[in-house]
Write a structure and sequence with these properties.
The chain has about 130 residues and is mainly alpha-helical. About 55% of the residues lie in helices and about 5% in strands. Helix 1 crosses helix 2.
Length: about 130
């Protein structure tokens, strides 16, 4: 799970301005079980909505670059594993591979920027097969 302070730090690292009240409001809006924390899937849902509000490919590119810390031009399972760990989330390799498989349009085992952009600019996860 991701606690409010971790969400605030993650959002700041992704370039979003955050205030405590805003963070708590966002958590309450998407916290499915009402425990005051969000899990990794809920975090991705939140980021999708936040990025979907922005039309800027440049903003999405900045976030892509945070995932692609090894600067390969792709998001690999290792990149996803690092981000999940940074957020305090433990996900199995199978879960991470499933995320990649659902996002990977050319089936090369990695997520390129276009795949990432398409996922992150969806308005709602209900329309998104990334984690469905």
């Amino acid at each position: 799970t991701i606690e409010p302070k971790e969400l605030k730090a993650a959002m700041q690292s992704l370039g979003f301005e955050t205030k405590n009240h805003t963070v708590y409001t966002m958590i309450s809006d998407i916290d499915k079980n009402g425990n005051g924390e969000i899990d990794f899937d809920e975090f991705l849902d939140l980021m999708t909505v936040k990025l979907g509000d922005s039309d800027s490919r440049e903003d999405v590119q900045k976030v892509f670059n945070l995932f692609d810390d090894d600067k390969t031009g792709f998001i690999s399972i290792q990149n996803l594993k690092r981000v999940a760990k940074d957020l305090g989330e433990t996900m199995s390799d199978a879960e991470l591979l499933e995320m990649i498989e659902r996002a990977d349009s050319d089936k090369d085992g990695q997520i390129d920027f276009e795949d990432f952009y398409n996922i992150m600019t969806r308005k709602a996860f209900g329309d998104n097969s990334f984690l469905a």
